[in-house]
Design a protein that fits this description.
It is built from 12 helices and 11 strands. The chain has about 270 residues and is of the alpha/beta class. It is elongated.
Length: about 270
């Protein structure tokens, strides 16, 4: 299925340029700005497959590289046909893009396994031997900014292998277009406008540590269409898992949303 990207022309051009000359790319930005969708879209544009891995502190080197099937090894020993390739080896053999979502959640040992593959297109697998990357292999990874919970800093050695493309929130007009494109319930223009405005307002409110992304606006608009257009009620359902308040005990989310709604309803300065 084709991936439709709203805006992001500069970022798409940057990714195209990097992958076109065999460079690896790190996409950095807050949750919900479309890092994964952008990576998928670029893979489609350059005609490469994508093998995805999601960052997890419990992920192991063996999962990334692959491992031998234990029963087969017990019965016939270490043979190439008994090796179960992991995402890294699969991407290397196929000449695909290894997409590592939230790389800075991965353990350091897993990150280090990627270095020779990124440097020389080679990985050494015990009892199997050398695996060489086919033409087209590259790594595209994402990371959330360092202030996000459960993230860590990537090593200097790993960062030195990446080109960096930063993504931030898009314009209000583009976010409305994204909500219109991705909503399941077909909400009207008023619902979309209110959902986007409310999500954007959480990003600048002093009581909110981490604001809502356009993904939250999509959820609000979807739910509001089933609640007779009540964006406020929809937000109470959609936002608790998608924003982080500085003081959730002292500042109820309902109060924050009520005050943001009142601010949104105030008329702006007259146009000149």
């Amino acid at each position: 299925m084709s991936v439709a990207i709203v805006g992001r022309s500069a970022e798409l051009e940057a990714l195209d340029a990097c992958l076109g000359v065999g460079r690896h790319v790190l996409l950095e930005g807050p949750v919900g700005v479309g890092k994964t969708a952008l990576a998928r879209a670029v893979c489609e544009r350059v005609g490469r497959g994508m093998v995805r891995v999601d960052g997890d502190g419990r992920y192991t080197e063996a999962k990334l590289v692959g491992q031998f099937d234990p029963p087969a090894v017990l019965s016939a020993g270490y043979r190439a046909e008994h090796f179960l390739p992991g995402p890294l080896v699969r991407a290397m053999r196929e000449g695909s893009v290894l997409f590592v979502n939230e790389l800075n959640r991965m353990p350091e040992g897993v990150q280090n396994v990627m270095l020779p593959a990124m440097d020389e297109g080679v990985v050494q697998v015990p009892n199997l031997g050398e695996v060489r990357a086919a033409p087209g292999f590259a790594v595209v990874a994402t990371q959330n900014p360092a202030e996000f919970v459960a993230t860590g800093a990537l090593s200097e050695a790993l960062l030195d292998r990446f080109e960096l493309v930063r993504l931030d929130y898009q314009s209000e007009e583009e976010e409305r277009a994204i909500v219109l494109q991705d909503c399941r319930g077909g909400p009207d223009a008023r619902i979309i406008a209110e959902a986007v405005s409310l999500a954007r307002a959480t990003r600048t409110d002093a009581r909110v540590r981490r604001g809502a992304s356009v993904r939250a606006a999509i959820a609000i608009a979807d739910i509001a269409t089933r609640l007779d257009g009540d964006v406020h009620r929809a937000a109470l359902l959609a936002l608790p898992t998608r924003i982080e308040l500085l003081d959730p005990q002292g500042t109820p989310l309902a109060l924050v949303l009520d005050e943001l709604k009142k601010k949104m309803m105030r008329p702006g300065p007259p146009s000149t």
